[in-house]
């Protein structure tokens, strides 16, 4: 199936649907840093940090925290047609991103140096070939003041054992998101095995590891404070992003200041 | 082949013929001053860092499979691949450039006044007629303290031997990019034969020579920390065709100095 014409798209839109989002107080993000909206209360419902600790879980559209979606009726597919967003808060600007949260694991202790081995599900159920998959570190509890390198053992898209690394900054704020530097050719991740910190950071920091795919990560809405922005995804942008079947569609943002903005908007989806 | 109507684009995007890639890079080197152009080819992030071409003075034609390139999949012939949307963001106000790295040669000694002859491949395999092909110099090890001119000897689109000179500033920083003009009346570069400095610069400076096609250069102007994109169908209508195997890479023109600038963006393409 495909949308053959713009008229088809208009027709599909009439049976499409929209999902609002409203996050009353997004986490403060230092200027230019990514911040997760996964565990922020509001719409969509607040996502939980994966438990038990160190037990991986593949995420899908039923995972609490995901933007509520219904899979398209095969052979149709689901597309993002329109995204609108606004931010409130002094001197605030930034971008909202849509991404498919493929897999995550929680409870990574940021104050121990022993290897923390992941159990349970260690691989995503989408993008199972690993190509384009990347890893993010999501701080859930701010660590102590000593920066340390976190090494993550993973299996790459060629089934080779690799190590990804990230320097976790001292006192990194909760909900901060950072990409890890992958090892090998850096082109993908099939599964994740363990994490080891180079030294204690002090404090009681905790983090999640999150897997995303670069093909399903969209910086869709740049906006400035107290201004509402709309982004149509075909004529205005020539994008028409595909939402993979079973996707755990989630939001993150990147701020131009360290304020805690109100974020609100809606996502319009259609099948075709 | 090509897109005949806008409906063809909608059809392509909704039938699995689109490819989207989120990319991110951290430029570890400070541009040193405003209006300095910097490469992102070798910077950590995604796509993974590319290497300086080796062996020294040996020409190489990189492709989409070369480490450092956005690893898209070629279209199924006779279809052709076209860019639909390019976007980007930088910690500083900047212009981000997306280009096809047609050809490169490394190991140019910036402390030698001798003629340095390019061996092996001297010409690209894309844009073989040379029309619109231009050159840039990438500093891969900081130059010495004496400014000198680098003369590049090339073959133009009319198969005539020509030369052009570019000034290499004293102490040019690593990762700086210097755009090179053409000899008067020339319309492009078919191949590169040799380079020669007007004198030794001192130090241990090294440079790469890179060929790109100016007609394919995509420019994304962005304010600091504010994502901007360009719809290449309606907003900036040129629907650029990607040659099969294009080695898509990025560089940026910075508005100020500052190390560790974080840049990210997205490339959307579709085949017809």
What this model shows, in words?
Chain A has one domain (6-271). Chain A contains one helix and 20 strands. Chain A has one helix spanning 6-14; strands at residues 17-23, 34-36, 42-43, 55-58, 78-88, 93-100, 103-109, 116-117, 119-120, 133-143, 148-155, 161-168, 176-179, 191-197, 203-213, 217-224, 227-232, 242-243, 249-255, 262-271. In chain A, the strands form three sheets. A ten-stranded mixed β-sheet of chain A has the order 9-4-7-15-10-13-2-19-6-16, with no helix packed on it. In chain A, strands 1, 3, 5, 17, 18 and 20 form a six-stranded antiparallel β-sheet that branches. A four-stranded antiparallel β-sheet of chain A has the order 8-14-11-12, with no helix packed on it. Chain B has 272 residues and is mostly beta strands. Helix content of chain B is 3%, strand content 45%. An eight-stranded antiparallel β-sheet of chain B has the order 7-15-10-13-2-19-6-16, with no helix packed on it. The termini of chain B are close together. The mean pLDDT of chain B is 95. The A-B interface holds A 1-6, 8-9, 31-32, 77, 79, 93-95, 132, 134, 179, 181-182, 185-187, 214-219, 222, 224, 234-242, 254-256, 272 and B 6-7, 9-11, 13-16, 18-24, 44-49, 67, 71, 84-85, 87, 89, 91, 224-229, 231-235, 262, 264-266, 268.
